[in-house]
Amino acid sequence: MANNITLPPNPQDKIHTDADAIKAASTNYGHIVTQNPAAVLFPSSVEDIKTLLGFSFNSSIPYTVAAKGQGHSIYGQAMATNGEVVEMMSLSKNGSNRIVISGYKGSGFYADVGGEQLWIDVLNATLQKGLTPVSWIICI
User: Fold this and answer.
1) What residues pair up with 99 in beta bridges, in sequence order?
2) Kind and range of the H or E element at 126?
3) Tens of pLDDT, residues 83-117
4) Sign of torsion, CA 73 54 16 116?
5) With bands split at pLDDT 50, 70 and 90, how would you rate the model's confidence at 1?
6) Torsion of CA 73, 116, 43, 23, to 10 degrees
7) What percent of the chain has a predicted confidence (pLDDT) above 70?
8) Is the pLDDT of residue 129 over 70?
9) Whole-number Å distance between alpha carbons of 98 and 102
10) Hey, is 86 helix, strand or coil?
11) Which PANTHER family match (predicted)?
12) pLDDT given at position 84
């Protein structure tokens, strides 16, 4: 039990409750918002995330779970006060590199992208197909 939440079994030490993990997950870009999670999950697969979400959902007191990539959000979107933060970048340590660009006739194209990917990698994958993400065009 950490901060009054019941955590799922910890396969291969993927759930961290130590001060360093909590501190790293408690703030985001610009350090505008600070919120302490009870724990941080460092998943090596999507199955680890599914297990965590199922455990929270079926818990007598469900808790917040937030996905955190590079921590570039500025208003706490990647935080989970007294919940659990999922460090999505840890998926890349397992060789995950999922960027699939597909399309259907008349429906346009889409990118199926893993949570561990950076926007620059998505841009490069779409450029190889002669495309760019709509969100990238808006930013220019």
Assistant:
1) 113
2) helix 119-127
3) 999 998 888 876 667 788 887 667 788 888 888 88
4) negative
5) very low
6) -30
7) 84
8) yes
9) 13
10) strand
11) CYTOKININ DEHYDROGENASE 3, GULONOLACTONE OXIDASE
12) 93
For residue 124, count CB atoms less than 10 angstroms from its CB and return exposed for 0-12, middle for 13-18, buried for 19 or more.
Answer: exposed
Amino acid (1-letter code) at residue 4: N
SS3 category, 129: coil
What is the rounded CA–CA span in Å between residue 70 and residue 117? 9
DSSP 57-126: HHSSS---EEEESS---SSSTT--TTSEEEEGGGGGGGT---EEEEEETTTEEEEEE-TT--HHHHHHHH
Q: Mention every residue, 6+ apart, whose C-beta is less than 8 A from residue 59.
A: 5, 6
Cβ distance 24 to 18 under 8 Å?
no
C-beta of residue 68 within 8 angstroms of C-beta of residue 87: yes
pTM: predicted TM-score of the whole model, two decimal places: 0.75
d(CA 121, CA 99): 8
Torsion, Cα 24 28 32 34, to 10 degrees, reads -40
